[in-house]
Design goal:
With 239 residues, this protein is mainly alpha-helical. Among the domains are: 71 residues, Winged helix-like DNA-binding domain superfamily/Winged helix DNA-binding domain (Arc Repressor Mutant, subunit A); 64 residues, no CATH class. Helices cover 66% and strands 5% of the residues. It has a two-stranded antiparallel ribbon with strand order 1-2. Strand 1 and strand 2 form a beta hairpin. It starts with a helix and ends in a 16-residue tail after the last helix. The C terminus is likely disordered. Keywords: Coiled coil, DNA recombination, Meiosis, Nucleus. Its main location: nucleus. GO terms for molecular function: double-stranded DNA binding; recombinase activator activity.
């Protein structure tokens, strides 16, 4: 079959006269919503030409079968609500029942959506396999370290006595105070000696004299919890 024959078969029949008027009116009543003339002609698939559609709509409005509304420069047409049939009570009741059922079903679906959203958020916040492996390795390392600390007790080694703890605490305080005092004396003396020297010469002099300054490890230890003012195990404050 040729393309010309197919075109002739699918061509929409153009309505005229009363048929065209009935088609336009039936469409507006069926849809029961405002339309412009262009939209009506387009939705009728060309069965009524645009020019004819405009004339028919105006004519139907003059007859009171439809209502014509002007919004700015645009004209809309809608079926006259006074001419529409009232919905029977039985049908209205059925529609209300259907509405309630649909509303309940919608609530259930919303609950399912909320539950699914919460589950999705939980899954997204859950650690990945890589993160779990890292945590397992860290936990295993902590367990191993704790077991190693407990090993002397398990082997029967005597625990440190209260007197030994007091002695260690006293020695720590004494030696650290001595170190702090001597470091202060040295820093004062060194500042006087190198006050007039450029930084490069001061560094060279320290290397020639074999002076060792605090390393990053010493600085980190000094800023750590061991050297911070705190109460010892036995309640004695360190300085």
């Amino acid at each position: 079959m040729s393309s010309k024959a197919k075109t002739s078969e699918t061509k929409v029949q153009v309505l005229k006269g009363q048929d065209a008027e009935d088609a336009v009116l039936d469409y507006l009543v069926k849809m029961n919503r405002p339309f412009g003339a262009v939209d009506v002609a387009a939705n009728l698939k060309g069965a009524v030409p645009k020019t004819a559609t405009q004339k028919i709509l105006v004519s139907l409005a003059e007859k009171g079968k439809i209502v014509q509304k002007l919004y700015g420069k645009t004209t809309f047409f809608v079926a006259n609500q006074a001419n529409l049939e009232d919905i029977p009570a039985e049908k209205l009741s059925a529609l209300e029942t259907e509405f309630k059922e649909t509303e309940e079903a919608n609530k259930l679906l919303q609950a399912d959506v909320r539950a699914a959203t919460a589950e999705l958020a939980r899954i997204k916040n859950a650690p990945t396999d890589t993160e779990l492996n890292t945590r397992l390795e860290e936990t295993a390392a902590k367990i191993e370290k704790t077991i190693a600390r407990l090993e002397p007790l398990r082997s029967g080694a005597p625990p440190i006595s209260t007197e030994e703890l007091l002695q260690l605490d006293a020695e720590w305080t004494k030696y650290r105070n001595d170190w702090v005092r001597r470091r202060k004396i040295f820093n004062t003396f060194w500042a006087l000696v190198t006050d007039a020297l450029p930084p490069q010469e001061a560094t060279a002099l320290a290397e020639d004299l074999g002076i060792e300054f605090d390393t990053t490890e010493h600085i980190a230890l000094e800023k750590g919890p061991l050297c911070a003012p705190q109460k010892s195990v036995l309640g004695k404050r360190r300085r």
